[in-house]
Inverse folding.
C-alpha cells in the first residue's frame, strides 16, 4: 500500500519530465529564456553584487577618530514615591 503513492508520484514526475523534454526539443526558446532569467536571479541572490566589487577598508574610518561619543546619561526625576511599598492598585 505504501508503494502505491510512490509509484503515482514517479509516474507524474516522469510525465512532467517528458513534457519538458518534448517542449525543449520543439521550442527551445520557450523554456531556455525563463531558465536563464531565473538562473540569473538565483545567482544574484546567492552571490550579491556587493561581494564582487572591491572591499572597503575600515582602516580609513578608524584613522579619523572614534565613531561616536559616549552618551552622558542623566536621571529624570519621576513622580513615584521613594518607598518600597507595592503599587496602590494591588
Amino acid at each position: 500500500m505504501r508503494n502505491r503513492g510512490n509509484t503515482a508520484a514517479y509516474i507524474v514526475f516522469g510525465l512532467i519530465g517528458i513534457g519538458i523534454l518534448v517542449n525543449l526539443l520543439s521550442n527551445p526558446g520557450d523554456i531556455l529564456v525563463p531558465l536563464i532569467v531565473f538562473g540569473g536571479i538565483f545567482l544574484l541572490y546567492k552571490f550579491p553584487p556587493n561581494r564582487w566589487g572591491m572591499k572597503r577598508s575600515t582602516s580609513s574610518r578608524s584613522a579619523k577618530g572614534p565613531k561616536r561619543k559616549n552618551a552622558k546619561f542623566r536621571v529624570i526625576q519621576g513622580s513615584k514615591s521613594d518607598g518600597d511599598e507595592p503599587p496602590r492598585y494591588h
Observations:
- Residues 2-54 form one domain.
- The two ends are 64 Å apart (CA to CA).
- The helical segments are 2-26, 28-46, 59-64.
- The longest helix spans residues 2-26.
